[in-house]
Amino acid sequence: MILYKGLPLNKNNSIMWPLCTMSNKELRRSQYVERYISNNISFDELLQTLHVCKRQWRRIISKYRKDWPIALAHGLRWKTGNNKINPNKYDIVKSIIKERYSAFKPTFVTEKLFECNNIKLSDEKVRNIMTEIWLWKPKSRKKEKTIFSLRERKICYWIMIQFDWSYHEWVPWEKWCLLVAIDDATSQIVDAAFCKNEGIEDVFPFWREYLLSCWAPESIYLDRFSTYKSNHPEAPDVTTQFQRVCDTFWIELIFALTPQAKGRVERVNRTLQDRLISEMKLAWISNMGQANIFLKTVYIPNHNRKFSVIPKSDTNMHRELRIEEKEIIDTVFSIHSKRKIANDFTVSFKTQIYQLHSSGPTIFRGEHVRIEERMSWEVVITQRERIIPYTKLDKRPEKWYKEPLAPMKPESHSKLSYFERTWRPHPWMKSSYMRNIKRNTQKEQKIIVTQTSSP
């Protein structure tokens, strides 16, 4: 029995914990500390969960026993760093470097700032400032010959999951994509599924089912495919839909630079391309539905029994999802898009128009809403985590236009030029112009009269 000194007990003789505000990271850390204090996991297994050294873990546990969960909050949360530069001084240094030392190298700029301007900064700080204002480009290190050394396995189950895909002709004349997830400590296939491609529409159902059945792992080791990581050179920091999901459930993503880095799952794919095809051929499997059932019920248990290894520890390091996380799992595993509200309170999305209703949260013209495409093909529109009711419109309502004027009759063809046909007299010249028109008409009338009177 674990005793916590100074904690009151309620009527049921259970511990009454003090209330304190904590972040998701601290809540996750408290779960593992409680499991260690309850002797469910060892100290070595606790070290594998979070990137914290032994001494720090001992300090955390000792403070946790004295001050309870409040000890997990960082002491410098609301304090500024000791080495942080004053923003005004930072702007002054940037202006000085731009005006005087733009052609200098960072080390020399550091010396000149101290000699001439009495400003003492480190070489790395000056180098970062010059890189920020595009006066210095960091030099890339010389590439050495790549040597791949064997990486030691994790000590217990499900600390790290290796995830990969494999396009292959799994049945005759049909090329499918196989999603495979293995445990790094044992090389067991924890889950696998056939799908059409490695897009987000197939990856989301795979991991949603995994989190609900097997809980959340500590980290996922995978490649740099565009579904998982933005590879555009001008926008490398853009968060993908998969990164957003993993950040929500506090799952660390480790991106491999080479296929050899995640060689264990690559080796499993090679084994599957050799053995699974033959097994499905013997079972007379011809479609994707039968293949998925055969893969999960027959092949994976036999494969794990033959190819898996024994880990150093039998502890399962999966983290159970909290109730709040299970409630939002449908919202998290949906494709999020942002749209702007038009003046008529409509939103356009994928050639479809949605009329928003005022019965939900207060919305205004020009604001942005979040459109969630659920895995069930349902579209949900939310704003500030509240659902906005809507109605689908077949087409946008037609605007009321005035009746257009009747087209003018085309003028008779004339040999006069455009300037002569469109020229109009100035008001000062109007009297003389009208006088000339009368003369011309009188002459034409006389000519007509003489032609009719002649025999």
From TrEMBL:
InterPro entries: Integrase_cat-core, ISNCY_transpos, RNaseH-like_sf, RNaseH_sf. Residues 150-326 form the Integrase catalytic domain. GO terms for biological process: DNA integration. GO terms for molecular function: nucleic acid binding. It comes from the Bacteria. PANTHER family: INTEGRASE PROTEIN (PTHR35004:SF7), TRANSPOSASE RV3428C-RELATED (PTHR35004). This is Integrase catalytic domain-containing protein.
